[in-house]
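Minutes, project check-in
Item: structure for the 295-residue chain
Input as provided by the requester:
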Amino acid sequence: MSDRFNTIAGWTLFSGVVLLSLSAVSSRYFHAGKEQRPETMGYEIAGVVQEGEGGAAETPFEAFLAKADVAKGEKVFAKCAACHTINQGGANGIGPNLYAVMGEAVAQGRGGYAFSDALKAKGGKWDWAAMNSWLTNPAAHAPGTKMSFAGLSDGQERANLMVYLNAQGSNLPLPAVPEAPAAGAAPAAAAVVGDAAKGQKSFAKCAACHTINAGGANGIGPNLAGVYGEGVAQGRGGYAFSDALKSKGGKWDDATLDAWLTDPAKFAPGTKMSFAGLSDAQERANIIAYLKTAK
C-alpha cells in the first residue's frame, strides 16, 4: 500500500512539474520580442476622430456659392418640382411658386399661399444665409413648418440650387468669400441664429417699459413695432429719446441691436435706458428675431 501511495504521489508531482514548465515556455513564446507594451493600445474604429486630432476646417458656404453652377442647380430643382413651380406667374401647388423668391420677405406674398405660422414667425428675408439654413434642414430652421422635405446635406448642391433660384427673377449679389484666418489665429465665432418664438418669451423682460403691438402707445420706453431697420432714435410717435442715443446714428440692424441689448449704457453712455442688458448671446439673438416679426 505504501509503495502504491508513493507511486501516485510521484506521478502527481511529476505532472505538476511538467505543467509548470509548459506554462513558462508558453509565456516566453507569446512575449518573445514583445517585452514592451504596444505603442497604441486597442485598434482604430473607422470614422472616429481620436483625442487630440482636429477635423478638417469647414468650408464656408460662400466658397460653394463662388463656384456654383446654375445648370447643375436646375437639375437639383427636379427634387423640388413635385411641390413647387418656378416659372413667372406659375401657380402655387403643395408649396408656393418660387419665381423671384431670393431676396423676398420670408413667408409673405406668393399669391396668397398659406404659409405655416412657424415660417411666418421667422421674419427677415430669403437672403443667402436664410435660404442656406432652410435648404439644409427645413424642420430645424422653422420647427413646425409644413415643409416635409428633409433637406440637402451637400453644401455644393445647395449652392447650385440657390444660384439657380437667384437666376429666376432675382438678382442678389453673391456674398464675398471670407478670408482664411492667419496661422495660429483663433477661429471666428459662429453666428448665433435667433428663434422668434423664444424671443417673444424673453420680451417679457422688456414689456414693463415697451409695447410692441402695431400702433401701440409709448410708455417708459418707445413702442417697438417695426423698429427693426428703422433709424436709431427716430420716429416712434415723437418719443423723447436721450441725446446720447440720438447721437449714435445708423439703423437698428442685427449688429446694432445686439450691441444695444448687450449693454445699453456702454452702447450709448448717458442713455435713459436703465436696463442692465442681456449677457446671453442666444437670448439676444432670439429677441432680435422676434423684433423682426413685429410689424
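Outcome recorded: Confidence is low (pLDDT under 50) at residues 22-56.
No further action items on this chain.
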